[in-house]
Structure formats: C-alpha cells, structure tokens
C-alpha cells in the first residue's frame, strides 16, 4: 500500500499523536511530490513532442516550398527558352526573307542597268554600225519544254492528257479560264511571261503525281524555284477564286435534294451530309513536334508518323460541301470537329437545326451529328441501324479515297512547308469537286482505300434528345422493313 493510501487511512481512523502526525504528513507530502514530478515529466514530454512535431512540420513546409520554387523556376526557365527559340526562329525566317528580298532587288537593279547600257549602245550605233540592232534579253538557262509543248497540242490524245492531269481537256480549259484574270502575267523587257495554261499545268501535274520539284522542272522546262512558286500561286488562286464557287454549303433547294438522295440510300431521313476525317502525312515540323505526332499511325505502321488533319462533309455524289484543314494529327476526330467553322456555325447560328450530319464512332452524338451505336452488346434494332448508317459513312470514305487517289501528293510527305500546306490541301479539295461535278471518272488503278484509326469519342453523348431521336430512327428502320440483315 502506497503512502497516499496510508495517509487517507490514518486520517480516517483519527490518529492525533504528534509523533504520528509528523510521520503521516511526511508520508503524504512525499506522495504528492512524486505524483507532481511524474505529471511534470509527462507534460514536459508532451511539450517536447509538440515542439518536435512543429519543427518537423516547418521543415516539411520549407522543403515543399523549396521544391515548389525549384519547379516554378524550372518551368519559367523552360517557358523563356521556348519563347526565345520561337522568337529566334521567327527572326531567322525574317532575316532570310529580307535577304531574299534584297537579293531580288539587287538583281533587278543590275538587270535594269544591263538593259539600259545595252539600249544606250544600240542608240549610239543606230546609224548602222550595230548591224541588226536586236533588243537584248536577260540570260536564262536553256531548258527543254518539249513534253509540255506536246501535251498542249490540240491533237494530243484525250486519254493521255487525262492520265497526266487527272481531268479532260475541257475541264482543264475551264479552270484556266476561271483563273486567267488572277494568274496571268505580262511580258517584260527581260523575259516573256509564262502562259496561263503552263502555269496551271505545272500546279495540277505536281498535285496529281506528287513528284519532286526537280522532276517537275525537267517536265516543263522551268527552274525548280519557279515551279515551286507557280504551285503556291495557282493553289492560292484556286482557293481564293474557285473555292467560294465550287465548295460551299448547299442552299435550301440543294439540301432538299440531298436529303432525298441520302434517304434513298439508307432510309434515314433529314441527312444533309456524310462526315469523315483523314490524315495527311508531313515531315516532322521544327515547332510543336508533339502536337503533330500521329501515335495511332506510328503504332500500326511501325514507323514514326506526323500528320495534319482534313475533315470533310460530302453530299451523296462525293462532292465536298465543307472542309476543315490543318489541325495537328494528334487531335481526335471530336476535337477537330469542335475546332471547325461548321461546329461554330451550328452552335451559334442554328445552321443545322432539324437535320443530321452522319459521322463515325469517333464523333459524339449531338443534336445535329448522328453516329452509330458503339456499345459492346447491341440489340437487333441497333445492329440494323448501324448497317444502314454505315452506307452513308461509306460515301464520305470513298470520296476521300478518290481525293487521295487523284492527287497523289496527299499520300506522301511533300516538300511544301507546313504553313503553306492548308492552301495546297484546300486547292486539292476544290479540284476534286470540279472533277466530280464534271463527271470526271478516276482510273481504277488510282483508287485507294483510306485507313484512319477510329477512336471512340471520350464524351460520346452530348444530347439526351438526340439519343431518343436515334432510337426512334432505329425502330422505324426495322419495323418498316427498311433495315437489312447483313449484320447477321
């Protein structure tokens, strides 16, 4: 029994002797002191633990702040480096352009000086000493253009002309007439201007064959840089002059006919277009390489691939009614759609109220975008719907196959710079439309099957009402005997 208990017991029993009281008081005091020391020790330990924990927490906070500061500093440094690189690259290109401009100016001044000197000599010798007095011209390398002269003859075989330029002579002449006012040049004192037909032929042959510029140069008897310049000039003219005329969204009367044709193909009402997105291979760009990296094509072909996208909407005849060109190849189909002008017009202006544009499973189901069912276990009705909507998807996919088949430059990486490529691709789409409208057939050997990996959209459902509308269309197809049984 401890001292505290003895103290209590003795007080209870009433001991009052002086000697005993002294002993009892000493015993009680000793117990209280012991307890007090133990309590103080515990409190001290707790205080020490609390201080230690506070120090540890402060050290962790300091370490976190230091790590955060290092990360922010690294990020800021990387950002500055990228901005400096981009700025230096722009300065580099600007200097090159300025140097080229100065060189061209000097060459023109020098040539003009030579011509003026020659003219003065001719004037001084005008009393007959100079002989013929023939006007001098700027010296150019003598190249043979026999191949083009042969193609340009009126009696040149139609089949051979179409094989070279992917179109008949009449369609080619139509394009030349349309572009004549924009691309025609006048003869100068130094040299004769290149004729409009030859200008257009250089561009179309380059797009049709995809051959390098050195071979284009040999074919047409022109310089390599001249051919490159002609291709870009004619493509720009096609985009600016012909695109508003031959590639535009249909009017009300045309939309009515398109609905009837698509309904005749599939049985699905109110369809105004078939949509598809393809990839065009490019050389790895110097800026934003990761954005143009095409992971799916790289994995399938076992070869590093970079690309840009072309999204197109076509009518039942395969004519493009809307295109969106130039977004990086790493973007999915639904991301490209959201960046397109068609999406913005449909969102802001109600361009597509009450009608459908059919896409594959890479696009989301929306109030105006109709896509197939993509879940694993489909009902009979859903299978039938997917079979019929696949017939509409096939129209766009085959149109892109003819586009790439006609213009072989789209099948391989070209020498065109990335910033100029959308102009070239837009020109290819316009020329495709002209050929389709003029019923220009394509050689079966040129037809290709486009292969673009479809990825299901992350947010595949954007509208509950469209989900109900799709179900209603699917049931109508099956119960009215419009759906086939090819899926069985």
From TrEMBL:
GO terms for cellular component: nucleus. InterPro entries: HARBI1-like, HARBI1_dom. Residues 51-75 have a biased composition (Basic and acidic residues). The keyword Nucleus applies. It is found in: Nucleus. Keywords: Hydrolase, Metal-binding, Nuclease, Nucleus. Residues 276-433 form the DDE Tnp4 domain. PANTHER family: OS05G0593000 PROTEIN (PTHR22930:SF244), PTHR22930. Belongs to the HARBI1 family. This is DDE Tnp4 domain-containing protein. It comes from Gossypium stocksii.
């Amino acid at each position: 029994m401890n001292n505290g208990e003895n103290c209590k017991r003795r007080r209870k029993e009433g001991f009052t002797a002086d000697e005993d009281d002294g002993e009892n008081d000493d015993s009680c005091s000793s117990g209280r002191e012991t307890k007090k020391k133990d309590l103080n020790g515990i409190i001290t330990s707790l205080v020490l633990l609390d201080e230690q924990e506070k120090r540890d927490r402060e050290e962790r906070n300091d370490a976190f702040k230091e790590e955060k500061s290092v990360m922010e500093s690294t990020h800021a440094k990387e950002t500055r480096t990228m901005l400096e690189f981009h700025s230096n690259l722009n300065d580099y290109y600007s200097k090159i352009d300025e140097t080229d401009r100065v060189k061209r100016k000097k060459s023109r001044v020098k040539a003009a000086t030579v011509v003026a000197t020659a003219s003065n000599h001719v004037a001084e010798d005008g009393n007959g000493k100079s002989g013929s007095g023939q006007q001098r011209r700027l010296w150019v390398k003598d190249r043979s253009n026999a191949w083009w002269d042969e193609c340009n003859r009126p009696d040149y075989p139609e089949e051979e002309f179409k094989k070279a330029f992917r179109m008949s002579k009449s369609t080619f002449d139509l394009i030349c007439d349309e572009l004549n006012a924009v691309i025609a040049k006048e003869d100068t004192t130094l040299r004769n201007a290149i004729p409009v037909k030859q200008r257009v032929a250089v561009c179309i042959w380059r797009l049709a064959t995809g051959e390098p510029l050195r071979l284009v140069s040999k074919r047409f008897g022109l310089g390599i840089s001249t051919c490159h310049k002609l291709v870009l000039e004619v493509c720009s003219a096609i985009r600016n002059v012909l695109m508003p005329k031959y590639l535009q969204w249909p009017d009300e009367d045309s939309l009515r006919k398109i609905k009837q044709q698509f309904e005749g193909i599939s049985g699905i009402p109110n369809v105004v277009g078939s949509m598809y997105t393809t990839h065009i291979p490019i050389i790895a760009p110097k800026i934003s390489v990761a954005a143009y990296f095409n992971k799916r094509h790289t994995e399938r072909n076992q070869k590093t691939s970079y690309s840009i996208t072309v999204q197109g909407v076509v009518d039942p005849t395969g004519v493009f009614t809307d295109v969106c060109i130039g977004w990086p190849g790493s973007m999915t189909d639904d991301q490209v759609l959201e960046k397109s002008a068609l999406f913005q017009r449909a969102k802001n202006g109600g361009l597509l109220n009450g009608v459908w544009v059919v896409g594959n499973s890479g696009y989301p189901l929306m109030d105006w975008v109709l896509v197939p069912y993509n879940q694993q276990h489909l009902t009979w009705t859903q299978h039938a719907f997917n079979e019929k909507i696949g017939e509409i998807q096939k129209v766009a996919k085959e149109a892109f196959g003819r586009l790439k088949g006609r213009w072989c430059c789209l099948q391989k990486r070209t020498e065109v710079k990335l910033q100029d490529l959308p102009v070239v691709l837009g020109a290819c789409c316009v020329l495709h439309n002209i050929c389709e409208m003029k019923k220009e057939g394509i050689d079966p050997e040129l037809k290709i099957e486009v292969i673009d990996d479809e990825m299901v959209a992350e947010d595949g459902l954007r509208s509950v009402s469209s989900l109900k509308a799709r179900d209603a269309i699917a049931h109508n197809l099956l119960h009215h005997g419009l759906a086939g049984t090819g899926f069985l």
